[in-house]
Design goal:
Elements (H helix, E strand, L loop, with lengths): L3 E2 L3 H16 L3 E9 L2 E10 L4 E10 L2 E7 L8 E3 L2 E2 L13 E6 L2 E6 L12 H7 L5 E5 L5 E9 L5 H20 L27 H24 L5 E2 L6 E4 L5 E7 L5 H13 L9 E6 L5 H9 L2 E9 L2 E4 L2 H5 L1
Parallel strand pairs: 2-6, 14-15, 15-16
Antiparallel strand pairs: 1-8, 2-3, 3-4, 4-5, 5-7, 8-9, 9-11, 10-11, 12-13, 13-14, 16-17
Length: about 325
């Protein structure tokens, strides 16, 4: 089932109110000048201490579009702040020139972004961002005129983890712009000194059409948190690329651990994860430890197969809005 955009102003107004409420709750408000190509204007910005991003909203900033801007610089550092990314849905009707949209599927309203990244510099644009961000939750949006486009589904506007989702997306855009400013492309191959590129994140529910979309958002959040937990344990040479979720390199550059994360225990997810772990370690001179990251233990029959394949299971569960890994220290022994 495709996503469909909200086109009635009453619906988009309500979605904006919910979005603004989620993003400003508990935040410190500042009045700061926000700059963009060709101008600047003083606005109220809301600093989220936990996610270390600010957000700003305006219902009437431009003709037929709401203004939703985000950045990472702490407002205490200056009177002028740079905008990292805007996600500006239209007030009503269809306007695909807007980078943002409120879209609906199965009764749930999501914030979406087209991937059209501004900045006025060479190498910054939608096609470049799409190529640099293959792990994004790209989904088909069906417009009223039957035209279809792909957009990144950032998260449910009423979701409790929406600030986490938006913060991670903002940082992905920021890294993309930094690479473009240096004339570099984001690599999807194994780096000699691995780098970690966090993905944006969402939430998980039981297996439904809605949960399938939301679990894809969860995937990035789980991988991000696992990376942070590894760093806390003094593991520095951590990387990821397009086909692999997360890996740890030894001092001589060999892969020591390969992690593959899934956000449900559905049969298809289990089969896919096993295939990815086996495929990406076959042919390695020194077999890496294969680690399957799951939101709980699979059935006994599946566990027996994993054991025979030399795959360890790392489990996690959400406590509040954060995933907690239950047996990570045992895995790393």
């Amino acid at each position: 089932m495709s996503f469909v955009p909200l086109t009635d102003r009453r619906d988009t107004e309500r979605a904006l109110r919910i979005l603004r409420s989620r993003m400003t709750k508990g935040c410190h408000m500042f009045r700061r000048a926000l700059g963009w190509q060709g101008g600047y204007q003083e606005k109220s910005v809301y600093w989220n201490h936990d996610e270390t991003i600010w957000s700003a909203f305006d219902r009437n900033h431009a003709q037929n579009r709401y203004w939703c801007a985000f950045g990472t610089e702490h407002p205490d550092k200056g009177r002028m702040l740079d905008i990292i990314v805007e996600c500006n849905p239209p007030h009503s009707g269809v306007d695909r020139r807007c980078a943002g949209a409120f879209v609906e599927q199965d009764g749930e309203i999501y914030l979406a972004h087209s991937g059209k990244i501004g900045g006025g510099r060479k190498g910054i644009g939608k096609s470049a961002f799409l190529n640099a961000y293959p792990h994004g939750n790209w989904q088909v949006v069906q417009w009223p005129d039957k035209h279809e486009t792909e957009m990144v589904i950032i998260g449910s506007v009423d979701g409790t983890r929406l600030p986490v989702q938006i913060a991670a997306f903002v940082r992905e855009v920021e890294r993309f712009k930094q690479y473009a400013a240096k004339g570099q492309k984001r690599s999807v191959s194994t780096p000699s000194e691995p780098s970690f590129s966090p993905e944006f994140a969402g939430k998980r529910r039981p297996y439904t059409v809605r949960a399938t979309i939301e679990s894809r958002c969860d995937h990035g959040f789980v991988v991000n948190t696992l990376q942070a937990e590894l760093e806390k344990r003094g593991i520095a040479r951590i990387g990821k690329d397009c086909p692999r979720d997360l890996f740890v390199l030894s001092k001589n550059g060999r892969v020591r651990f390969l992690f593959e994360a899934k956000t449900d225990l559905a049969t298809g997810s289990i089969y896919q994860g096993i295939g990815q772990l086996v495929y990406h370690t076959t042919g390695c001179a020194n077999k890496p430890q294969r680690v399957f990251v799951l939101p709980g233990m699979p059935k006994a029959k599946t566990r027996a197969v994993l054991t025979r394949l030399g795959i360890k299971v790392l489990t996690y569960r959400f406590e509040g809005t954060r995933p907690v890994f239950k047996n990570l220290d045992e895995i790393l022994i």
